[in-house]
Please model this.
Amino acid sequence: MPTKTETFLQNCWYCAGWGTDVGLGSRDLVVRKIAGRSILLYRTPQGALVAMEDRCPHRSAPLSLGRKEGDAVRCMYHGMLFGPDGRCRQVPGMDKIPPGADVPTLAAVEKDGWIWVWLGDPATADPALICEAVGPADPDWVLKTNAIRIETNYRQEIANLADLSHVSWVHGETFGGSDDWSLIRPRHKNLPRGIETRYTVRGVPAPNFAKHLFDPAARFDIDVHVTLTVPCKFIMSFRIKSAGDATSGESNGDLLLDTFTSQAVTPRDDGSIDYYFSWGTSKATWFPGIVELMHATNLDAFLEDKRILEGQRERQLQYPDAPQIDIVHDAGPGRMLWVLDKLLEQEASDHVAETVA
Amino acid sequence: MPTKTETFLQNCWYCAGWGTDVGLGSRDLVVRKIAGRSILLYRTPQGALVAMEDRCPHRSAPLSLGRKEGDAVRCMYHGMLFGPDGRCRQVPGMDKIPPGADVPTLAAVEKDGWIWVWLGDPATADPALICEAVGPADPDWVLKTNAIRIETNYRQEIANLADLSHVSWVHGETFGGSDDWSLIRPRHKNLPRGIETRYTVRGVPAPNFAKHLFDPAARFDIDVHVTLTVPCKFIMSFRIKSAGDATSGESNGDLLLDTFTSQAVTPRDDGSIDYYFSWGTSKATWFPGIVELMHATNLDAFLEDKRILEGQRERQLQYPDAPQIDIVHDAGPGRMLWVLDKLLEQEASDHVAETVA
Amino acid sequence: MPTKTETFLQNCWYCAGWGTDVGLGSRDLVVRKIAGRSILLYRTPQGALVAMEDRCPHRSAPLSLGRKEGDAVRCMYHGMLFGPDGRCRQVPGMDKIPPGADVPTLAAVEKDGWIWVWLGDPATADPALICEAVGPADPDWVLKTNAIRIETNYRQEIANLADLSHVSWVHGETFGGSDDWSLIRPRHKNLPRGIETRYTVRGVPAPNFAKHLFDPAARFDIDVHVTLTVPCKFIMSFRIKSAGDATSGESNGDLLLDTFTSQAVTPRDDGSIDYYFSWGTSKATWFPGIVELMHATNLDAFLEDKRILEGQRERQLQYPDAPQIDIVHDAGPGRMLWVLDKLLEQEASDHVAETVA
Model:
């Protein structure tokens, strides 16, 4: 259940949206709430990305209500001007800049169409820890992107993504179409910062959103390969094949549709997440209309998740002391949250060590 | 004044609405908040009523977002199936049901058109404690039903119902029409779980909602008989007669309109109530249009109560430490709240005794 | 930053709106939230102003939901009647008035078109402490009045008004038009209950809202004289002259537009203020349309303040422990808040002395 005041991992990359969300226009001062902080994003005239706390160090006015001036941003309460390094360049009416007049900046990187920010010390930001995704501009793929907000705690969204048995129930109208997803017991492999899961769903009917495209008797195999890493990045290859006769390992059917989805979940605070996602097919298996259908279905499906997750949160807040039992499908969520908690513990003990030293 | 966190009586019947609110349709999973808990109501194919906690024991998803399957309900997060006894029948993907995978059920009874649930141990539920009302299907009466929600603490609604002197002021546009209601000092008789009040208002003009139906000079007597029981059930015979010459006891005028109202107030939580009510006439005194007029007036009047009760609550929360003086009309509210508090104390001491034993 | 629970000055005058807000109509029971209290305002048939707590001493119903009867107000829950002195005159159904059945009243004064209430003991209310303003009925001035609500703490509004350097930035589209406001370092003179500030902005272009009325090359001097007193009354003479050649003291240009603004800010509670203001010209410098333009601009400008102040409050609540640095322009806010805090300390120690004595 959600803790009352969540401690968020600092030394990791949080998704701050799609690169196209932050334009070059004079009003393009984008603010994202990430792990309790409000982060201002903008681009310099050269297109370089700047990420800084959305708070003037003088009287806390949001810099996102400010004005872009070249590569700098001016607070429009008392006119203080800050460079992309967060350094104060000017205090109107003063000759000297007073000490402390700087804004904390964050390491920010664009990769695979996404913007990533590192909450911890920018000097320790490690681009190698950004997840491997497939961006909407990848020449081998046809992908469409989208975003929603869900009023839940991000741990519940992790649990949702680490256990796809819910596809049979939550997504009955969209991705689902049979009980098969809930009968599989996938093995999860621990990674240093997440889990990796591979399995094949065999001999299933077409999912509901695509049932009308196939003979009702047609059966399919689906090879699933998911990598889920902290804080909550869900990267999945989802390959639809004609039903083969292999009973273990990957399906040996014919590859019909090679799809890929990249999903990043950013906790805004204890009770709210932003969810950025793409889905589409390889160019080789694409056919007209299919990605538009997948795009529409994906949003419908995530609104199904939103409904159940927000209902769940309501009950968890209403019954804070009620026990929750575990079932077999909690292996994935349990592992993933264990990895997250281990990293959180490590950060806490590193912090104590630093404070003592 | 409302306590910050109310303790609600457990061993009593709370009204969960009208029986007609819970249908046989596939989507008829009704949820009611009662004394801080969310209760799912549905019917089996045979029409039997089921009441259970609206929370899956696995990850707290609301069962009311689930699916009816025969006499069972399936949680549509991970597919767990629960029978009408709350027992888990199936966990998809598991051969055995894990311990604890049950949902608490509540005793539920339909009587006089209302649904009643018992919050305490179902084994102790005593149908004899359900109040005596007149239901909308009673062949001797013509009644119409309705419901509203008021953002107040239920103790304030008890006080409202235990003292009808407010009719002169709050209901000036509807039930009222003179100061007479506020001049009467009724005697209240204590019952084991409430109070009973009988009196006659004599020689009053027609109430405002019916003034146009009578000669302005006409005067009436009204015999009132109220039974008010915990948590908050208000059953009233309200007989309108031509003004007689008796000065004590029941009016000896001619019975013009024999009306009956059944009202049940359910605390949702500390600051919100659901109010279910009916009003109408005996078949013998009915005439065309009268019950429709009473029905419309009743809702108008309860919206008058809502306005004053919600204003009162705002001030009580704003001035939590301000003293409140008592007046003569607080005899009824005082008695009724004394009965309620005595029962609450008894439950608290029984609970201590059980815990120690 | 706003304290969690603000202590408000009691022995001072708070503005409760414009006199025209409280009419003689039967429904003119006006309620204002002031420093956490809800105050009922109404007029007797002779037009005299009455101010009392908007709470019946019986069961806390708002008297503002009541009924005017002559010079009295009747609570429309149980009919208690209160005179303009707060004394209970009648409890329907009772022969005697129970002790404590009175409503606290407040000293209320109308001056310069405004209504003022004194939160402390009415016996100590000192009309000499009401600020000197110019009312909309003053025969020498042409003024229009208005009001807005801002969700901020009143200390932030004090800081806003005690430092007009923000005009260059916040009001770029309205009052501003150049950086000059942010380059001036005015001297502030302490008053017993506030500060007084005089300075001249020299050789500036027309403000943006009036740019189209003048030759673009025209330059102006502006003589500013502000008196700011607790809790937050901002009275300003703002005289626009043709640019003169004096380099200190008042401008020696020709007086073009002699304007005057009276502004009163009332804290409703910790996080909300009501703002009542007027602006206009002397009759001598008035010309057709100018006051209408100033009136519209004034509201636009205060909505600019609202946007920045509400953004600031959001960040201050989000980052309660973040340090705020000071700049040169904080001299005015610092002095004014120092005066306020000194008076608050004095009230606290007077209160201790009274309690001990």
User: Anything to note?
Assistant: The helical segments of chain C are 154-161, 167-170, 290-318, 331-356. The longest strand of chain C covers residues 255-269. Residues 290-318 of chain C form the longest helix (29 residues).
